[in-house]
Write a structure and sequence with these properties.
The structure is a single chain. The protein has one domain: S15/NS1, RNA-binding (Helix Hairpins, Orthogonal Bundle), CATH 1.10.287.10. The chain has four helices and no strands. The chain is globular. The termini are far apart.
Length: 91
């Protein structure tokens, strides 16, 4: 896959609000990873407009990220606002 373990750890450390060094499953970490993958796929689709299978995968990722954001908004609004501000997401 295009995303190495080192790159994932860097994403989790920089944007994921890790609670401890091995924390990869928190909502913030997953949202940060999904955001990175979404931006990568968006760039790919700008060059390959007719790649419909990638477009479907992108839409599924956006839906997963949206569900995680909704969960985080219901559980802890301050964490939700922090991740939205940090990743420059809008709703």
């Amino acid at each position: 896959m295009y995303l190495s373990t080192e790159k994932k750890q860097e994403i989790f450390a920089n944007q994921g609000f890790q609670k401890n060094p091995g924390d990869t499953g928190s909502a913030e970490s997953q949202i940060a990873l999904f955001t990175y993958r979404i931006s990568h796929l968006t760039e790919h689709l700008k060059a390959h407009k007719h790649d419909y299978s990638t477009r479907l995968g992108l839409l599924k990722l956006v839906g997963k990220r949206r569900r995680l954001l909704n969960y985080l908004q219901q559980k802890d609004i301050s964490r939700y606002r922090a991740i939205i501000a940090d990743l420059n997401l809008r709703k």
